[in-house]
Amino acid sequence: MTRSAGVRFFIVGLLALLMFIPLFLAGEVIDSRADYSRQTVDSVGQEWGGIQSLSGPMLVLPVVGPVTRTERREVRNAETGEVEVQTFEVTETGWKAPVHVFPDAFDADLATTTEIRHRGLFRVPVYSAEADIRATFGLAGAEALLSEGERILWAEAEFHLSLTSNRALRGAARLTVDGTEAALEPRAAGGPTGGIFALVGDPRPVQEYRLALGFNGAQSLFLAPVGRDSRVTIASDWPHPSFGGAFLPDGSEVSDDGFSARWTIPHLARALPQIAREDYDQAARNEAFGVRFFQPNDFYQKAYRAARYGILFIALTFLTVLLIENRQGRPAHPVQYILIGLAQSVFVLLMVAYAEQIGFGPAYLLSAGATVALLTMFGALGLGLGRRTLVLAAMLTLLYAVLYLILQSADYALLAGSTLAFFAIAFTMYATRNEDWYGPERPEGQGGLLSGLAGKTPDTPPDAPPDKAG
Fold this sequence. Notes:
- The chain is α+β, with helices and mostly antiparallel strands.
- It has helices at 5-18, 20-48, 281-285, 299-324, 334-358, 360-382, 389-408, 413-431, 449-453; strands spanning 52-76, 83-101, 105-119, 122-136, 151-152, 158-163, 169-177, 180-182, 185-186, 194-199, 209-218, 220-223, 229-236, 241-245, 251-255, 258-266, 275-276, 289-293.
- It has two domains: 5-37 and 298-431, no CATH class; 51-293, Immunoglobulin-like (Sandwich).
- It has nine helices and 18 strands.
- The two termini are 49 Å apart.
């Protein structure tokens, strides 16, 4: 490479930008593995019970009333004797749109126990939940929704609860109406969600409905705020909750042993009518809230972040080599810089491959140690850095230590990365404060761009014209 410092910096900068290509390819491999991991998580989760979202309870009051329909009949014309088809309107008693009633008071306590399921290399957190749901209903406004001639069949009222899928139901499923048990049945398939229901008889004298329900789930657990006043608590042994949905908890306690959270939601906070002739179950599900069983900083996220920051660390390594190489001897060749960049790009893939087998911490230590050892040996034997190899080794150790801190804490990744880049630039500015960026001067008319890029400088001045005697 040319001995001009300015040209060397320019070429090394281009080589650093060229390293975007292997880093991009490494990122694509990581994305592919992450997609496969997500598919595995979804598959295992669905087999265990899947994402669970509960909506209800709700009373469904059947309504009958006058129903008018048209009927075509054959009638013989008395004058002509011909048979004619005439249309008649027939009014009879039939089923009308039922009345749907959400509870006045809705209290739910849920407790979940998590476990880890394995499929191949992947770990999938799933949970088993026990729900204790209590509800009271106000029915004073139900008959005000009826039209003339309509009446509610109070004795045929039904108690409904919607679930994401009935396949998740396990263990207890017990409904008591003022202490008397009512038989629960699965709701007929065909709707967008699963569910259960029970014939509860005339609900007007009932004081409280209480439902104990056991079910499995994975990834998240959500509830709809169906009550005029809704109070919900969720407790679990999972230490990494991510609260979300339409409402955040009023308060929560999170520790290494698990979490607990509580919500209190008044009726004015959700856009749901208390009593209606339409089914607002889907609207209620759209306002659901709850918790996701979050896996913080999984190694695919960390590896992808490492690939994003990789260009910074490659550039800093290139800069270190450029500053400490023997400029009086033979400078490092561009191919040698490319080999250094490729080794650091492969580090990301090594980290993912070993993390799938032994976990992130040991995989990072193994991959970073191998990369630092390889580049240090290359600096000593390939670049001929001599004692300056220790500087390269110290710099690489510092870089990968900082990268580990960046990957462990997503909140401080930008702070650490930008600070490292700033100090690297500042150090470079200081180290090159006396640098001759244009390189050694050449006699006028000699050299040029091609000879400069080739690293050739005249050793002796051109021959002088012979002296003329006399």
